[in-house]
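FYI - complex with BES, inputs then prediction.
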Amino acid sequence: MEFFVSTAAPSRQRTDCAIVGVYDKGDLSETAKELDRYIGGRLSRLVKRGDLRGKAGDTLLLADIEGAACERLLVVGLGARHEFRRKQYRKALASALGALEKTGARNAVSYLGLEAVPDADAYSLARAAAEVVGNAQYRIPDHKTTNKRSKPSLTRFGVAVAARADVAKAERGLRHGRGIVAGMSLMRDLANQPANVCTPTYLSNAAKALAREYRSIRVRVLNEAECRRLKMGSFLSVTAGSDEPARLIVLEYYGAARKDKPTVLVGKGVTFDTGGISLKPPANMDEMKFDMSGAASVLGTFKAVAELDLPVNLVGVVPACENMPSGRATKPGDIIRSMSGQTIEVLNTDAEGRLILCDAITYARRFNPDVVIDIATLTGACVIALGNHLTGLFSNDDELAAALKAAGERADDRAWPMPIGEEYAEQLKSNFADIANVAGREGGAITAACFLGKFTEGLRWAHLDIAGTAYVGGTQKKGSTGRPVPLLVEYLLNK
Ligand code: BES
Ligand code: MN
Ligand code: ZN
């Protein structure tokens, strides 16, 4: 997909399809009005007849335009004028792309960016456009032999800006949007693959492919023997029941001065979570192929950062394994020794994410990090607390938490602050070891974060629980969302 910025008036825009907006009750936008004059008042007639109401998400395609330079005109409903914000803009553009896909248009220009959007500027509108278009063109890795998904026909997409002065800003927005989409698409490709394809080895090969694609990325993959030498007893206890070899994937990107401390991203890479001996119930268990979404978001963020050549130092640590039951699997009550030296009583083998993350966090210390951010589909309890809209944000550093929350807002990929604290951490007491890996049902997302907190002393650390936001479950729309790549890239853009 090629993106460009245009300053041409809508009537003079040579394109397969011009996209313009109409607010509710048939209130034509300025661009729609201008075009209307050139095409003989067709739009105002449609408004009068009640065929063009401007309800948010409605679309109307005029495929035979005469009088203006465009081949087609796609009118999109924008909803109430006083409620039009970046969110509504994204939705309107997404509806427009849905309608555009049913046509043969190979290129299009959006005029929606000329609307007044109180919480946006030329940069953020162009960036949002590139993200919406890029994500609309995403296709799930196809394992179908019949009814294959159609390839998108659109190859060029323009965003119109009002003034010459906005061109550079919009171009920068398009560039950032493209980078973010590239990262999200990589994340989605990895997470959407079934667990018999996307194994720990597959993830490590994907990381190596990134290092081949970008000279700025270096990758090292540690096998189980090397993890044993590092005394990662907690990580290895999770993979004990699996025949698929575990991997610790380490990525490095140095875009800033060598002396600048890196941001370290730690991503949960459980390529399938059966629960282990504490076996999960069958309903929706297939969705546990998405339990490596944290890992995939780390790889996706590296892709975006390398694509955009960001001036930051970044390290990724991805513990990747399966959580399986078997004769060799870790059993409830087993006591293991983490790389930090702390012993853990595994009361529930389904609380495995924290067991692989704690060793990865301990390993991350060798990079002398500025901050450590772990990303994990960690708890069902977080989905109960926040639903599928917001990522759970936990941190031992208020400044870091505020920066991540603000990044999520700017990127339209929001996270919400959740508490941690001694009261909760106390629930992790064990009669037999230093700590237990679970602490009862109450406050499950928080006690999980507090477990990780036992391994982050002296670090500026944040934990993103993406169990509710990384993928859409159910049947129809099931698939990876690409979140929280936009939040993470935005955080790094601001560093
Ligand atoms: N991968 C799951 C968390 C999860 C659940 C992600 C639902 C997405 C949707 C995690 O490993 C897990 O099983 N957590 C347990 C923890 C419990 C045993 C303390 C959970 O949330 O039930
Ligand atoms: Mn689990
Ligand atoms: Zn899990």
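The longest helix spans residues 167-192. Residues 270, 273, 291, 352-353 surround zinc ion (ligand 3) (CB under 6 Å).
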